[in-house]
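Try this one yourself first.
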């Protein structure tokens, strides 16, 4: 990006993301400290990469800037971040798509096969451990990564929950990613962000001072509140999406 610059000694995007990750407790609600549940996985993956001294990709950098703007009140305030965003500073210049693909070419690929993401790569103990960590539940059905010894590859079922883990791992480990995963991931995240936004803007959250009343998991939102009128207001906010 033309207005991006590098200054390892300055107030960098990496430092701000690390600051947010340091505050974060992985909460399922927005409590005003660190990332909310929706942003925890991505925010921490950015922080871990920065801590390892690895440059972000351009897409990761764009995502980081969105998080910095979203949590600006925690890391300097409106005026400071608005000025900083005019010329974002990075510790290392983010990798272009071409640079990322050249680095990953022929080595690490994630491709689609039916409703499954297939990972192929030369053996890497850290990467294998990360893949083993992909597991969860979607619409009452558990899913997990599995090893195919015959074809020497790992696979993960693709759904609205697993796509977030698939994309985080693929980007962190610089896989060459089939375009359909990028498209699906963008669609899923847009859907989740709109739901989270409706929750945050409604009195379900604000009247409780961001206490544990709203939780978003696997695209499903759970509300706890004794006042029926507050829940009705939230339903109305959702209906406007």
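Now uncover the answer:
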């Amino acid at each position: 990006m033309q207005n991006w610059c590098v200054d390892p000694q300055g107030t960098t995007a990496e430092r701000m993301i690390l600051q947010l990750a340091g505050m974060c407790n992985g909460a399922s609600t927005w409590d005003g400290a660190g990332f909310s549940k929706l942003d925890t996985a991505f925010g921490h993956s950015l922080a871990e990469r920065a801590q390892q001294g690895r440059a972000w990709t351009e897409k990761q950098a764009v995502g980081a800037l969105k998080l910095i703007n979203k949590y600006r009140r925690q890391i300097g305030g409106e005026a400071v971040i608005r000025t900083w965003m005019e010329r974002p500073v990075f510790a290392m210049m983010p990798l272009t798509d071409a640079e990322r693909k050249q680095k990953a070419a022929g080595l690490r690929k994630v491709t689609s096969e039916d409703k499954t993401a297939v990972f192929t790569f030369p053996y890497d103990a850290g990467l294998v451990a990360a893949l083993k960590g992909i597991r969860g539940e979607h619409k009452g059905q558990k899913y997990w990564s599995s090893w195919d010894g015959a074809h020497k590859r790992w696979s993960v079922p693709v759904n609205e929950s697993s796509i977030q883990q698939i994309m985080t791992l693929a980007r962190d480990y610089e896989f060459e990613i089939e375009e359909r995963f990028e498209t699906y991931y963008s669609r899923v995240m847009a859907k989740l962000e709109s739901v989270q936004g409706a929750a945050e803007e409604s009195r379900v959250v604000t009247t409780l001072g961001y206490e544990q009343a709203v939780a978003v998991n696997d695209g499903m939102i759970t509300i706890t509140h004794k006042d029926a009128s507050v829940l009705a207001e939230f339903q109305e906010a959702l209906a406007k999406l």
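Discussion: DSSP finds ten helices and eleven strands in the chain. The first strand starts at residue 5 and ends at 6.
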